[in-house]
Amino acid sequence: MLKDKQQEQNRRAAALGKLLARPMQPQQKSTTVGLQSLGLDSERDALLYVPKSYQADKPAPLIVMLHGAGGDARGGLTPFLHQADDAGLILLAPASRLKTWDMLYGEYGADIAFINQALMQTFNRYAVDPAHIAVEGFSDGASYALSVGITNGDLFSHIIAFSPGFMAPQMQQGKPQIFISHGTWDNVLPIKRCSCKIVPQLQRADYDVVYQEFHGFHTVPTEIANSALKWFGK
């Protein structure tokens, strides 16, 4: 009975784009570092990267990394994977259930439930700093990061959106800090109809936004990724 009630609560939360997982004192402490699968799905799993410097008595910052359309968990890790050890970051990269994120098909649901499951497992095994939890994404993943990050601003302290197309939060919770970048030559999600509209909307809603344009196409240049990490680490 209690299990059915919990499942219904989780289903309703997922439909609203809400993540229920929260950092906790790990119950199943792990000392495993490096790249690992969470074993939540046989085909489209979530990947976790734990830095070599991780210590159970020192909660680490966490970034949830969301791939672009047609991508997967490994692709989602790309912007920050090589900097994770130096920055002491835990990276969590879920894969969308379909080719892109549920909200892009019209409603929240399965992907929120999967991300919540991945977060619960991560929080149960590793100590995470609740004041430094970000959601990051590129392209469709950036649109999803903005939408989910604003909806769950009581969980995420920071949002990093590389070349987003739009945002569709279900509600506003808290006031996460936001970093957005976009290429001026982007021919996939043109800057004029995307970030040039998104950034003023966020500023009018009183969000603290750092916005960086660069001369380039639909990509995440290394210098932009480094800039975002430096901003997150302040």
TrEMBL record:
Q: Which Gene3D superfamilies match?
A: alpha/beta hydrolase
Sorted alphabetically, which InterPro entries does this protein's record hold?
AB_hydrolase_fold, Esterase-like, Plant_Biomass_Hydrol_Est
Family matches, as Pfam families:
Esterase (PF00756)
Segments passing through the bilayer: none
Q: Which GO terms of the molecular function aspect are on file?
A: hydrolase activity
The domain of life is: Bacteria
Q: Which UniProt keywords apply?
A: Hydrolase, Signal
Q: What is this protein called?
A: Phospholipase
What does the record give as the organism's lineage? Answer: Bacteria, Bacillati, Cyanobacteriota, Cyanophyceae, Nostocales
